[in-house]
Amino acid sequence: MITVPPLLVLSAVAEEFGTLAGVAVGVGAVRAARGAALALTHCRSRGVLILGTVGAYEGSGLSIGDVVTARHIHLLDGTSALGMSYTPLPPPPLRCDPDLQNATGMRAVDVVTTGAITTDASLARVLGTHGAVEHLEAWSIAHAAAEAGLPFAAILGVTNEVGPNAHAQWRTHRAAVEAAVIQAATKLLLGYAPA
Question: Using N-to-C axis directions, what is the helix angle for 138-147 and 29-41, rounded to 10°?
């Protein structure tokens, strides 16, 4: 008899789930949407767990090394946020499953998915009014899960501050933060039994 895990673990790249069984869906919102949809095509799991690293917006109260769970996931375009363009029929924020969110035992924050890593401090301040952290793939994966009728949650680790120093900070802190995220995910997966 094959044992089906209750949660399918998805992340942008394989390093983000370490030795956990999971599927890398690709970097960026477009690749992640396609990868998540393909991963869910034959999914027999009863939910989706998104893992990854994030940047924290100024004023979020988060520090590098913090590991959080998502509450709502927003999809935003930087030029729209600055009033330089508009998005017709913008997609609504997606709500993570409250039971899964609570099962993590972590601080829940709102997540912003953008089309690219934000390096401009002014844009970061505007986007930060919509959420605490920035993650490039979360909305796409969450949308695929919602379309498949599966509950979803995210465990995300802060590697950097959103802004000009994001990439250098991410490179410095990535390995340690990914390890912390994997540890938190392992704890959830070992103890989670869906109703």
Answer: 30
Distances (CA, A) of 48 to 119, 120, 157, 166, 175: 30, 32, 17, 28, 23
Phi, psi of 125 (to 5 degrees): -65, -40
Distances (CA, A) of 153 to 2, 69, 80, 148: 24, 7, 27, 14
pLDDT at residue 88 in the model: 87
Whether this model's pTM surpasses 0.90: yes
Between residues 54 and 81, the one the model is more confident about: 54
Please report which helix (H) or strand (E) contains residue 36, including its range.
helix 29-41
Query: What sign does the dihedral 99-104-107-108 (CA atoms) show?
Result: negative
Answer yes or no: is pLDDT of 58 > 70: yes
